Amino acid sequence: MQNSKFLSAIFAAGVTFVLACLMLGVKLNTEGTTLQVEGASTEQWTWIGLGIAVVFLSQLFSAQIDAFFSGLPKPQLAKVLPEASVMARLKPWLLAALIVGMLVWPFMVSRGSVDLATLTLIYIMLGLGLNIVVGLAGLLDLGFVAFYAVGAYTYALLSMYFGLSFWICLPLAAALAALFGFILGFPVLRLRGDYLAIVTLGFGEIIRILLNNWTAVTGGPNGISGIAKPTLFGLEFTRRAKEEGAMTFHEFFGISYSSSYKVIFLYLIAVVLVIFVIYLINRLMRMPIGRAWEALREDEIACRSLGLNRTAIKLSAFTIGASTAGFAGSFFAARQGFISPESFIFIESAIILAIVVLGGMGSQIGVILAAIVMTILPELAREFSEYRMLLFGLLMVIMMRWRPEGLVPMKRPHLELKQ
Amino acid sequence: MTETFLYLIQQLINGLTIGSTYALIAIGYTMVYGIIGMINFAHGEIYMIGSYITFIVIAGLLGMGMVSLPIILIIALIVAVIIASTYGWTVERVAYRPLRGTNRLIPLISAIGMSIFLQNYVVLAQGSRDVALPPQISGGWTFGDPSVFEVSFSYMQALIWVVTFVAMTALTLFISRSRMGRACRACSEDLGMTNLLGIDTNRTIALTFIIGAALAAVAGLLLGLYYGVVNPFVGFIAGLKAFTAAVLGGIGSIPGAVLGGLILGVTEALTSAYFPSEYKDVVSFGLLVLILLFRPSGLLGKPEVEKV
């Protein structure tokens, strides 16, 4: 037994060496027109050796390590929180406090953090939208960013060519994104789940390629700049009104101009949008359609034998998810004032998916927490930014291995009869 | 022989060249899908690593003063196959095997994570910029009247055709004749039953990952030499194309993957010949959607019956 363990440890160390020797130990370097290789520095080889040693030891003592980790007490969330009946009474107050806090908070902190919070809220919106598709309906959508792009470009183009305001474009963007979701979903959703992943991925790429190459309308890789900012009932947040006779926000209220009003205003719009989306999804989840989504995720064949129309159910989840992305997209365009196809690459889809997976598929609180973590952590760890995507991928693998249900697993709203 | 006809012939040659490398990558997807029913998202990354290893070995051997090109290429091929197979095996062992038997979405998400990880691992190890290798194999045959249109068929393209053909033949013989190949076929028929009959299914699954990775490394070598450029992001789009090829031909079927790869390669070459070349990806994904619509099981695939 001990002997075989030793052999497998040697084997694992050997595999690690093969993996590392050429990829990490040697670096390609272009000198003029010839390609050269140079060996890594001694320091890098020390690191590689260290890695091999770690793999060797962890294989050799895997039994002990497993025993140590299973001996650790698992965090019990249920024990920390007060009992269900107390929670039910406290909940409205907590919610009210949270909303008031979110509304008051931006006036007390710096502009940068409000801006970051707005970005976080965009990701929360996206995460919630994808959560309907992936978490509730169990459809793996890898091209979610396409609908985000549709929303963003809808607002940018309508505002540029027709001068429509943000508030008119917001529902239009959501509707158009939903239409795209419908058109894509209609043929594809009849198929088995895995194909959906690849078709949506292809669709995301198609949208990006079209945006990149349809230069006459979308501006191609240069994107669209100078997108109009949202207004408050026609009051602009600029120093001077664009048109003659129009009032700006600070003139109307007779206060001095400050650029942070605009940032706070955008933040407040985002808060309202997020609350709207959360409310909507919460209602939908309690409706028959929401229950059908989850039933379909759990067992498709059972659903069909009970007479549920799976295409219609999947399509509704897909379309509603897409419209949420459209919302987020048009708000994103309004906040940035500039969009280009660069903002809508596959990695963006992967980040949104990681938010949903990390938070716990189907769980709204989980998704919100994960979105906050995912946007704030990179800001805090700026010096590690080159490792960001590496850790991202690693995190997805590790989460699937050790906690596939996510940080805050989903709980169905349910009532229990006490005997 | 008119000019349009010769032009078409040229596009067909180019398309079949690219298509045969897609086929090599597609086999990795189709074999894994045939046995465990999951999309190995990290497969395109294995191809990219194969390309990098090839470049490293060739540049290293040239730097050491070796001149015989065939020996260099053979050494590069062997090293790339060994290292890429090790990557394929490790990915399966670390990211997929512990998740076997869970909900279908879970290994898929783990695979996406692995793909992002490998891509950025190469970015960190080798930098994110293009690495260019000067052409090693130049020259070729030309046909047709030089005053009208000259069709060229380069030695590099010939090499790709020959190597692909040899690899496919070897794979077919291995799958149909050898004991392990029979175990592979048995596993794709019924994994549980094969296990009951005393075949180590874990080992067989690992073997399919190794074979897939080895073929991806061969494709990495060929395409790396053909294009002469590699960067850490080539794996993503190549993987996507190869998966499209696998679905096109009928996922789970090895001849299907080859057929799908060739069709996709020709379609792309024709699209970029007669339309702006940016739209070739659009056309190939459009083709995927159409195939899935009208023939979800692919050209050579068996229709799947869902059982409770």
TrEMBL record, chain A:
Domain High-affinity branched-chain amino acid transport system permease LivHM N-terminal: residue ranges: 6-105
InterPro entries referenced in this protein's UniProt entry, alphabetically: ABC_transp_permease, LivHM_N, LivM-like
Residue ranges of the TM segments: 6-26, 47-72, 92-109, 121-149, 161-186, 193-211, 263-281, 315-333, 345-373, 385-402
Membrane topology: Multi-pass membrane protein
Major place of residence: membrane
One Gene Ontology CC term in the entry: plasma membrane
Keyword Membrane: yes
Keyword rRNA-binding attached: no
Top-level taxonomic group: Bacteria
Subcellular location: Cell inner membrane
Keywords in alphabetical order: Cell membrane, Membrane, Transmembrane, Transmembrane helix
GO MF annotations, alphabetized: branched-chain amino acid transmembrane transporter activity
Protein name: High-affinity branched-chain amino acid ABC transporter permease LivM
Organism: Neptunomonas marina
Organism ancestry: Bacteria, Pseudomonadati, Pseudomonadota, Gammaproteobacteria, Oceanospirillales
Automatic annotation (TrEMBL), chain B:
CDD domains recorded: TM_PBP1_LivH_like
Bilayer topology term: Multi-pass membrane protein
Location in or out of the cell: Cell inner membrane
Keyword match Transmembrane: yes
GO molecular function list: L-isoleucine transmembrane transporter activity; L-leucine transmembrane transporter activity; L-phenylalanine transmembrane transporter activity; L-valine transmembrane transporter activity
TM ranges: 12-34, 46-65, 71-91, 103-124, 155-175, 205-227
InterPro entries in alphabetical order: ABC_transp_permease (IPR001851), BCAA_transport_permease (IPR052157)
Keyword presence, Cell membrane: yes
BP GO annotations: D-alanine transmembrane transport; L-alanine transport; L-isoleucine import across plasma membrane
UniProt record similarity statement: Belongs to the binding-protein-dependent transport system permease family. LivHM subfamily.
PANTHER family to which the protein is assigned, alphabetical: BRANCHED-CHAIN AMINO ACID TRANSPORT SYSTEM PERMEASE PROTEIN LIVH, HIGH-AFFINITY BRANCHED-CHAIN AMINO ACID TRANSPORT SYSTEM PERMEASE PROTEIN LIVH
Name of the protein described by the UniProt record: High-affinity branched-chain amino acid ABC transporter permease LivH
Naturally occurring in which organism (per UniProt): Neptunomonas marina
Recorded name of the encoding gene: livH
